Amino acid sequence: MASNVVVIDASARRATVKTTPGKILSDILQEACSKLGVDASRYGLKYNNKNLDLSNPIRLSGLSPGAKLELVMLSRSPSVVSVALQLPESEAHGAPSARLFERFPSSTTLWLVLRKFETMAPQRNYTARGKTKSETGNSGAGRLYHEAPMLSIMGRDLISFKDLQKTLAQLGYNSGSVLLRLSFRVSETPLEEAMEQTQQYFNSVQSDERAGAHATSITTSEAVPDTVEPIFPEADSNAKPPPETMSPHPNGTIPTDTSDTQRENIRTTSEEPPPPAITGPDQRPITVFKPSSSSTPRAAQQTFNEKDYEPTIAHAKLHQARLQNSGRNKTLLSDKELAEKETAKAQKVADIKEIAIKIRYPDQSTVNAKFTNLDTARTLYGFARGVLASEEEPFLLSFISAKGPRAIPRDSTQRLISDLGMSGSTLVNFLWDEGASPESRTRPVLKEAMLAQAKEIEVPDIPESEAPEEPVHDTGSGKRKENGKTEGKGGMPKWLRGLAKK
């Protein structure tokens, strides 16, 4: 027989709990968590790397005296428990075998379980029953007193209203099935007072939850996002790569010897007023760019340095920090958090009022325009058709969504932002349909009026600079002291010398 058990948490803190043969493991968990100052609903118990059934008493758990139990964190998502309610004979009419069956999340309280069973039939009443004192043989006939529900679980009686506020998980039922035996007892509280006390209790609980949610939102808004500490103290897993990894020049250096002519060109370009907008279909301002005059892409003509593609120490540190972050255990989101995430995602989409769309045609000419959250796929097809030289030819439009390439349905009323998921700057590809004529495929796609106002895509030239010579690091065994001993990298570390002495 176990006289006491020791509960150890992840930080090696201990809590000794006295036990009796009939003590339930869930009570041991509650007492240990109260001593350690943690929420018992988020934890479970393990013994010899096996999860313990918290609904069992000590005599059926197989624990030895002084057993050491591990306090482990449970999943934040509640599991499903099958509940069978055994009804008394007076309430058994209409129920097969005098039992009711239903599945509940493990976070459901016993009171809500009874309320759920009440809603399954209009004539059932388990939580708001009243009985006169005359029926019990006492005086005071005519006044109703509360007939409180009682539940019995494996020989354990839950009588008070506070006991019925415990969840299935707190009683040790995180999975499987459980049988609840229902009975009633007449209390000394009048029915109207009992109902008022019950309502006051739930009102206070709801106000506490609202206050907690408000405090959590304030803390979240003011808190600084956590950063992941990498193995190397110099690296930051959430930081962007250092300048040398993003710069087109070796070692991230930017040439400072810019000539006066280059400075003048930059100043002239920055002070140059924007060109007048072109009005396209539906009186929508557009910008038209000519196709490239060269068959070789501009990116292929740029010179580059081979050392820009060699991984550096900063790359290795960042990669190691990301591997460490991805290898950590992460708790699954609960149903409430998933719902909040979907709500935030929908609100983010609803806040988008306008997006920029670039339509790229087969001859590599592009047309830029802005669309609102009210524009649909039909509007986009009408706009793309309005700038074509051959408006009667069939064509298709597609774009790259978050889930991959996606075709835009023709003559559809789906909205571009809320239904198709477009956001920010979106590139839409124009493709001729199979029924398009060969003439339309070979001649310029856009109208002559559009091509006359089209402009070249200006790509700024990146000034070249010579890579500075990297300093040569001494890989020798370090400097020699006068006494013959070495210092620096060649010497034996202090911790290694200590091990050698042992």
Q: Give the helix/strand class.
A: alpha+beta
Q: Count the beta strands.
A: 18
Percentage of residues in DSSP E strands:
15-25%
Q: Percent range for helical residues?
A: 25-40%
- The N- to C-terminal Cα distance equals 46 Å
Q: Based on CA inertia axes, which overall geometry fits?
A: elongated
Question: H/E series, N to C?
Answer: EEHEEEEEHEEEEHHHEEHHHEEHEEEHHH
Give the rounded overall mean pLDDT. 75
Strand order of the largest sheet: 12-13-15-14-18-16-17
Write down the Rg.
37 Å
* Number of alpha- plus pi-helical segments: 12
Structure in words:
With 502 residues, the protein is α+β, with helices and mostly antiparallel strands. The chain has twelve helices and 18 strands.
Draw up the topology in text:
Elements: E1 4-8, E2 14-18, H1 25-36, E3 43-47, E4 50-51, E5 68-73, E6 80-86, E7 99-105, H2 110-119, E8 129-132, E9 144-153, E10 156-158, E11 177-190, H3 191-222, H4 243-246, H5 260-271, E12 278-279, E13 285-289, H6 298-301, H7 313-326, H8 335-350, E14 354-360, E15 366-372, H9 377-386, E16 395-401, E17 404-407, E18 425-432, H10 438-442, H11 448-452, H12 494-501
Parallel strand pairs: 1-5, 6-11, 14-18
Antiparallel strand pairs: 1-2, 3-4, 3-5, 6-7, 8-9, 9-10, 9-11, 12-13, 13-15, 14-15, 16-17, 16-18
